[in-house]
Amino acid sequence: MKKVLNVLLGKYYLTQKPNTSIAYPVTKGQITTDDVIRMLKQDGMEIHETTAKDIISRFHKKVAELVLSGFVVNTGLAILRPIIKGIFQDKVWDSAKHNIRVSFVAGPVIKSAIADTEVNIIGEKSASVQLFSVMDKQTENTDGKLKAGGAVELKGQGIKIAGDEEHVGIYFTNTATGESIKIPNERIVLNYPRLLLFMLPNDFEPGEYEISVVTQYIRSDKQYKNPQSAILPRPVIVS
């Protein structure tokens, strides 16, 4: 069955070429394992929902056990492998400096589904909140290379961090692990609608990250009821 992914086009600000856009998938909400099991039951799955949930739970635990025992596990959906982050100077494991992560890469089932997916452009993305560029303030480089402990400048539109919703803030999402790290509010030095300046923590884990901003800001006297978000068009490298 052909799948259709609806997308909105937003202006791409990191080039001077005219009429250049990037696509933003239109998400339909969050689906849990219980939701998937109910859908399978509706599709004719013969085993009981409780049994299916138990099997999936056991499967998840076994996969986690195998990956963290040193195996590369191909589940079909994803290929998982253990990785270690941190620099060793004295050949001793230090949990304050080192940590275990798991890399997730699309497996053959996902790749096959991607090949059978049609992209449907349904319109243009609202320009209420957008991220345009990032700069390492120490070097003034705008190539996406950042230093842990350094000052980072983000430019955009409507990006002032404002609102009481718990998810409001600046996020770095590791592209290898999917883990999102929120920049503490106290590390935000400047907070304007078109400019954010903040300090990365000194112990920030090196890697490739996607930067995003979540805010309820509209103007000084008005806020969105639901948070709005924007993602920097290209990932950054933290070293």
TrEMBL record:
InterPro entries, sorted: Bvu_2165-like_IHF-HU-DNA_bdg (IPR049893), DUF4469 (IPR027824)
Domain DUF4469: from-to ranges: 131-229
Superkingdom per UniProt: Bacteria
Pfam families cross-referenced by the UniProt entry: DUF4469 (PF14734), HU-DNA_bdg (PF14848)
GO molecular function, one term: DNA binding
Keywords recorded for this protein, A-Z: DNA-binding
Gene3D superfamilies: 2.70.50.70
Residue span(s) of domain Bvu-2165-like IHF-HU-like DNA-binding: 5-122
Protein name per its UniProtKB record: DNA-binding domain-containing protein
Species, as recorded: Thermophagus xiamenensis
